[in-house]
Design brief:
There is one protein chain. This protein is of the alpha/beta class. It is 30% helix and 24% strand. 49% of the residues are buried. Bound molecules: flavin-adenine dinucleotide. Flavin-adenine dinucleotide binds next to helix 1, strand 2, helix 5 and helix 8.
Length: 737
C-alpha cells in the first residue's frame, strides 16, 4: 500500500503512450500529497511501433511489452486490472463491472482507439482478426492460421491503408514463414486499402515506394473501394467485387473505443473526447483525455503515437499544476513528424520534411528510436521507498494509539451505509441494530469458530478484502461448517481521511461481496490505524456436516490437492517488482477461488480428512495431518501443480520470508537424504495465501472427485500422493515419477 498521507488521488485510465510517461515520471519523483492509481484492461501494455517487427521475428514479443504489474510495483503505484463501465462525474468516481467504484481527484483517460467496423456486415466473425487489442493479436492470429488447411493455398487480406496495416503486410510473410505460425504451405497476401488507398496522406513518392515494395513482395494491392461484407472465405467490396480471404486482418482507421461512447462527455465526430489545448476535456476540467482518446478542439491530427508521446511531458506538468491550482500549460502539436515504415527486409521507408527514403539507415534509425523508447518503460528496478517526513506538529504525528487509534466513526458509517450487507436468520443483534456486541443463535448449539488475519500482500484493498474473507472462511468450510456470522479485524494504513475512506470502502466491498456469496452476515468488528493494511475475520459457522478432521486419514487414501501452489513465491516476487504481468491474473484468480467446495466434497464425495493449505505450506500442513492420523505419505513431486511463473521465480532465487521456517518445521519428517533446500522442493514449503484444500480419499473415488473438481473450476486439482503405513514416526517420502 502507498502509506503516505496522500490527500489527492490521480487515476490514469489506460496506460498507453501518454499515461505511461506519467507513471515513469512518478517513479522518479512522486507528486506530493498524492497517490497514483493505474487502471488498465490488461496487465501488459503494448507498443504499436514494434508490433510489426515482432511479427517479422525481428524482436521477441517482450520487447513491445510494458509490464504494468512490474512497473507499478517498482514505482509503488497501485494497479487495477478491471473492466471500466463508466464515470460518475457528479461523484468523481470510475465505475467497474466487477469491483467497487474508485474515487479520483484528477483523471487522465488514455484508452487509445480501435479500428472502425462501421457499416461492415460481418457474416463470419471467425475469419476476422482485429489488430486490437494488441496484447492478444499475435496469439489470435496464430490460432486462426492454425485453423487453415495445411495443404490448401490460403489468402490473408490486411484491411486498412494506414502505416500500421502497411507495415503488418510487409512483416506478415516473414511471420508466416516462421515456425511459430504453423501456416499453410502457400499463402497469398492482399493489402485491401479502401477508398483512399494505400498510405493516404503520405507523399506520392512515399506511396510509390510502398507500392513498389508490395510488388517486389507479391503483396496484391486492392484499393479504391471500401469493404462491405466479410464472409467465411472472402470479402465483398462496395463495387461488388469479391476478394478471396480466409483470414481478414482488420487494421482500418481509428475510431473511439466502446468505453468512450458510454461516457457523458463532449465528443468529436468519431466519438473521441473533445479537449482543450491543455488536454483537459471540454466537459470536465478534472478529467484529461490524451493520445488517441482525445481530440483537441480546432485540430485535425492523425491518431498517431508520436502525438501521444509528446503529450506526456505536458500532461505531467499539468497534473501537478492542477493539484496546485496553477494555470495549465498548452500542448502545441508539431506540424510534421518523421514517418517510418518497417519493410522487414533490413530496411525501412521513411518520410520526413517532404522527402521519401527507402534504405538500411532508415531501419537502423527506426530500430534505434523504438528500442530507446521502450527501454525507458522496461526499467523495473524498484525505487527506494522514501518515508514521508511527518511534521512533528501535524495531527498525523500526534495520531493516538490504544482505543484512540480506532478508525473515525464517519468512515465506518459512511462505508457501511453504502454496502448491501446480507441479513442472516441467526443474527439477533447485528449491524442493523448495533450494540456493544453481536448476538447470534446457532444450530443445535454446535458452533465452529475460527479467526485469521494477514498484512496485505497486494496493493489493492478490494482484492485484499476478498482474499482475507475467503481465507478466514476457508477454515470453517474444511471443518464442514457453513459460516453464518463474521467479525472484521482491520488495520488501515495511516492515510488522509479521504484516502482512508476510499481504502475502507474498497476493502469492505470486497469482504461483503464474498460474505454475501456465502450467505454470512457481518455483525461487527474492530478497525484501527497502523503502519500497513491488515485484514481478517473471526468467523462463526454452523456445523452442517461431520468435520473431516486432519487426523482421519486412512492408509491407502489418495492425497488430493485442489489448487496449484506457489502464491508465496509469486507474492514475494510481486513485492520485489519481479512478477511478470503474464502471471499476475492466474495468481489473483487462484487466491480468490473460494474453498466453499469443501462442503460439497464432505457431503457428496466421501472424503476421509481435509485441511486447507495456508502459511505452513503443503509440507507443514501434510505433516500435521500425518501426525494426527499416525500415518506416513508418499508425495509425488511431479504431480504437485504450481502457478505459472513459480519455477521461473524460484530459479531467480525468490522465496517467501516464511519459507525457511517452514523447511525447519517439516525437516524432521523427510528422509535425511532429501535436500530440502533444493529448488526442486521449494513448492512444498511455500506459504500459501488463499491456498487450496489438501484431502484424503479412498483410491477408487478419486476419478469422480477429480472430475467434479475440474467441472467446478479447479483445473489444476490432482492426486499428489498416497497415505502409507507409518513404521515409527510419520514420514513424507518424496517420489519422482
Ligand atoms: C500496427 C500499428 C502500428 C502503428 N505504428 C505507428 C507508428 O509507427 N508511429 C505512430 O506514430 N503511430 C503508430 N500507430 C498508431 C499508434 O499506435 C497510436 O496512435 C498510439 O498507440 C496511441 O497511443 P495511446 O496512448 O492513445 O493508446 P494506446 O497505445 O493504444 O494505449 C491505450 C491503452 O489503454 C488500454 N485500454 C484500452 N481500453 C481500455 C479500457 N476500457 N480500460 C482500461 N484500459 C484500456 C489498452 O490496453 C492500452 O494499453 C500504429 C498503430 C498500429 C495499429
Amino acid at each position: 500500500m502507498q502509506t503516505n498521507s496522500a490527500k489527492n488521488t490521480i487515476v490514469l485510465l489506460g496506460i498507453g503512450h501518454t499515461n505511461a510517461h506519467i507513471l515513469k515520471s512518478w517513479k522518479m519523483k512522486p507528486i506530493d500529497d498524492c497517490q497514483l492509481i493505474c487502471v488498465s484492461n490488461f496487465p501488459i501494455s503494448t507498443y504499436s511501433g514494434m508490433l510489426p517487427g515482432v511479427l517479422a521475428g525481428q524482436y521477441p514479443i517482450e520487447s513491445m511489452e510494458i509490464d504494468l504489474v512490474r512497473l507499478c510495483a517498482s514505482a509503488n503505484v497501485r494497479l487495477i486490472i478491471g473492466d471500466v463501465t463508466g464515470i460518475d462525474r457528479e461523484q468523481n468516481r470510475i465505475q467497474f463491472a466487477e469491483r467497487p467504484d474508485l474515487s479520483y481527484d484528477l483523471l487522465s483517460i488514455g484508452v487509445g482507439s480501435r479500428p472502425s467496423f462501421e457499416n461492415i456486415e460481418i457474416k463470419s466473425q471467425q475469419s476476422v482478426v482485429s489488430i486490437k487489442p494488441m496484447q492478444t493479436f499475435k496469439d489470435r492470429l496464430n490460432e486462426r492460421i492454425g485453423q487453415l488447411h495445411p495443404e490448401k493455398e490460403a489468402s490473408i487480406a490486411i484491411v486498412g491503408g494506414g502505416i500500421g496495416s502497411i507495415e503488418v503486410a510487409f512483416c506478415l510473410d516473414r511471420h508466416l514463414n516462421s515456425e511459430q505460425a504453423n501456416s499453410p504451405s502457400k499463402v497469398k497476401l492482399k493489402l485491401v486499402a479502401g477508398k483512399t488507398g494505400v498510405g493516404s496522406g503520405l507523399l506520392p513518392s512515399t506511396r510509390q515506394l510502398i507500392l513498389d515494395r508490395c510488388k517486389d513482395r507479391s503483396i496484391e494491392v486492392i484499393q479504391g473501394h471500401r469493404v462491405k461484407t466479410i464472409d467465411a472465405d472472402s470479402l465483398t467490396l462496395e463495387d461488388e467485387k469479391t476478394v478471396d480471404a480466409d483470414i481478414v486482418l482488420w487494421a482500418t482507421n481509428a475510431v473511439a473505443p466502446e468505453l468512450l461512447g458510454r461516457l457523458d462527455f463532449e465528443k468529436d465526430g468519431r466519438g473521441f473526447l473533445a479537449t482543450t489545448s491543455k488536454l483537459q476535456t471540454k466537459t470536465d476540467g478534472n478529467v484529461f483525455a490524451v493520445g488517441d482518446s482525445g481530440t483537441i478542439e480546432g485540430t485535425d491530427l492523425d491518431k498517431a503515437g508520436v502525438y501521444a508521446v509528446r503529450q506526456g511531458p505536458v500532461l505531467w506538468e499539468n497534473l501537478q499544476r492542477a493539484i496546485q491550482d496553477r494555470p495549465l500549460e498548452t500542448y502545441r502539436p508539431q506540424t510534421d513528424y518523421l514517418k517510418l515504415i518497417n519493410t522487414a527486409d533490413g530496411r525501412s521507408i521513411a518520410q520526413y520534411k517532404g522527402r521519401s527514403f527507402y534504405s538500411r539507415w532508415c531501419w537502423w534509425l527506426k530500430d534505434r528510436i523504438d528500442s530507446k523508447f521502450m527501454a525507458m518503460y522496461q526499467n523495473y528496478e524498484p525505487m527506494p521507498m522514501k518515508a514521508t517526513p511527518v511534521d512533528p506538529k501535524s495531527t498525523e504525528a500526534m495520531r493516538c494509539l490504544g482505543c484512540g487509534g480506532k478508525i473515525g466513526s464517519e468512515i465506518l458509517s459512511s462505508v457501511l451505509s453504502e454496502l448491501d450487507i446480507a441479513e442472516h436468520p441467526s443474527v439477533i443483534i447485528g449491524l442493523k441494530n448495533p450494540d456493544d456486541a453481536a448476538v447470534v443463535k446457532t444450530l443445535d448449539n454446535q458452533v465452529t469458530v475460527t479467526t485469521d488475519f494477514f498484512a496485505s500482500p497486494l496493493n489493492d484493498p478490494y482484492l485484499v478484502g476478498r482474499i482475507a474473507t475467503l481465507n478466514s472462511a476457508s477454515d470453517c468450510f474444511v471443518m464442514g461448517a457453513q459460516p453464518s456470522a463474521a467479525l472484521a479485524l482491520i488495520q488501515l494504513p495511516l492515510q488522509h481521511a479521504k484516502t482512508q475512506l476510499q481504502t475502507m470502502r474498497e476493502l469492505m466491498s470486497g469482504s461483503v461481496e464474498e460474505l454475501n456469496r456465502m450467505n454470512c452476515a457481518i455483525v461487527g468488528g474492530h478497525s484501527i490505524e497502523g503502519p500497513r493494511l491488515t485484514a481478517g475475520f473471526t468467523v462463526l459457522g454452523d456445523q452442517i456436516s461431520d468435520a473431516k478432521t486432519k487426523g482421519m486419514l486412512n492408509e491407502g487414501d489418495a492425497l488430493v490437492m485442489t489448487k496449484p501452489l506457489g502464491s508465496g513465491v509469486l507474492l514475494a516476487a510481486l513485492m520485489q517488482a519481479q512478477l511478470s504481468g503474464h502471471y499476475y491474473q492466474e495468481l489473483v484468480d487462484s487466491m480468490v477461488q473460494s474453498n466453499v467446495i469443501a462442503l460439497e466434497l464432505i457431503r457428496d464425495h466421501d472424503v476421509s480428512a481435509m485441511t486447507d493449505v495456508t502459511g505452513f505450506g503443503l509440507a507443514g500442513h501434510l505433516k500435521e495431518m500425518l501426525v494426527a492420523s499416525g500415518a506416513s505419505a508418499e508425495l509425488w513431486l511431479d504431480k504437485v501443480a504450481t502457478l505459472s511463473g513459480f519455477d521461473e521465480m524460484v530459479e531467480q532465487g525468490i522465496e517467501s520470508t516464511l519459507a525457511p521456517d517452514n523447511r525447519v518445521n517439516a525437516s524432521d519428517y523427510f528422509l535425511p537424504s532429501e535436500n530440502i533446500n533444493s529448488p526442486e522442493l521449494a513448492k512444498l514449503f511455500d506459504p500459501q495465501t488463499g491456498g487450496g484444500i489438501l484431502l484424503g480419499i479412498a483410491q477408487e473415488k478419486t476419478a469422480g472427485l477429480l472430475h467434479f473438481l475440474s467441472e467446478n473450476g479447479f483445473a489444476k486439482s490432482a492426486v499428489v500422493g498416497t497415505v502409507v503405513a507409518s513404521e515409527r514416526k510419520p514420514q513424507i517420502l518424496i517420489k519422482r515419477v
